Amino acid sequence: MSADIVARLETLLARVVSRRSAPRTAVAEAAPVPTSPAAQADKPRSVPPPLPRSTPPVEPPPVAEVAPPAIIEPPAEPESGEYGAAVFEDADVELPASDITEAEAGLEPVAPPPAASREPLDTIDTSPVLAVPHTDAPPAPVAAAVEPPRIELVRSDPPPAPPTASEPAEERPPSVEPPVAEIIPAGAPPVKVTGPLVLDAPRAPGAARPAVAAESPAVAAKRQEVLAAFGAAMPATSDLTDEDPDHVETRAFRITPPAAAFPTGAEPVLAPAPVPAARIERVEPPTRTTVLYAPELPTATVSAVVHPPAAVSAPSFRALLERSLALRPRG
Amino acid sequence: MALRTHPLEKAVTVDLSTGRLALATPTVSRAVAVPAEWLAQAVAALGANAGPLAASLAAAVAADARAMLAGDADPSPEACASAVALALAQRGLGTCSFGRFGDALTLTWSAPPSAEPAFHAFASDLVAAVVSAVTGLATHAAVAGHAGDTLTLFLGSEPACTFVRERAARGEGSASILATLLGATSA
Predict the structure, then answer these.
(1) How far apart are CA A115 and CA A119, in angstroms?
(2) CA-based nearest residue to B176, from B185, B166, B167
(3) pTM summary value
(4) A121 Cβ contact list (under 8 Å, min separation 6)
(5) Closest-CA residue in chain B for A325?
């Protein structure tokens, strides 16, 4: 039994004694006893300071004179991991289950304080409070070998992937990340990237690769600049973030072979595709010429196609007179 | 619609110092102004012999109308109506307009010298002679009805005008006469 545990047991006994000597109402308002030795040294043992309360004092339930069978309540379950960690860090004060069982015979339980007077879990000792009889019973032995339960947080991050044997880090250029590695099938042989990728024009199998002309210094400088940007994991589109819905497109752009974006001298320069001439034009005139007679109504220019009627020669007066002259009464 | 303009500001010039009434019409340089009732009384006095008077007056009106049409052999209804109405108005004979009731062509003479039944024959002969002279078509006219200071004349063939004249003599209205004419036509 370590000295620390012995000191804590002494603290418990002192608290029980002070509770029995004090009135019952004071028991409910008893301040928590600091469990750490450092805290015990700072605060006196005899008069614990009262804690501030926001609720009116509640009359504690009466304590039966006849000691009922001992009921040991387990500590309250922590509501969160943070509280749980705090509780179980102090749980080394708790008595092992075997020791508690042995001490049940001579102990009488103390009614727990009402719920309204309970203190936060991180400031109160949640270990079962046992009343110690006045008899000079030897202190219950505490098994030091039993380790209190602890909770450990396990990181959910996957372990770092081991470096692939086929692509040692020394063989790559420091600023070039092979983006094609993510899209290579699993069964494909390893690809050794020793330099910028160059796309070749499709050729017949077995045909010789056409000679690649040296690129201009301006193109080479631009290539190195873009490769450095890729190596530094800079976003291709700086104005987009991961919260944007089109960030997937950004990622897709990242895995594009960087050399494909720059044509080399050997690649044929294709003429731009003809842009279709059909386009939508604004029919409405840019300026409004409508006079507003009703300002609350929006103005709009109504454009209509007027199909003039076919050129029908207006009947002359002579033709009209001929039709009238043609009238003949019957009989 | 193109209306032909005509200088009306000097169409009639009254020179009280000389007692002359000058008409600035294309065909008449001098006129004698008489009360309209005098013309109605003269027509009533002539009776069936008022035909030459109507023909003489119609020739003068038609000459002015043709001069206003500037030799248009096939004028539009609007141009023809304007010319005839202006030619009548320059002589104080009132004004006129043309209308259609189905295929029946009518002339509404407003403010004629008289609207009495004794004037109907003279009015028919005058209008028929003017229209025939302007259009070149042998046209007859008959008074289908009158209301107040307005005469409604039907322009058509002689049998149709005879039909209308008989109906009008019975006191039948112009619309009813024309409807009957159109329903009974066998054209």
Answers:
(1) 9
(2) B167
(3) 0.41
(4) A76, A78, A79, A83, A86, A87
(5) B156
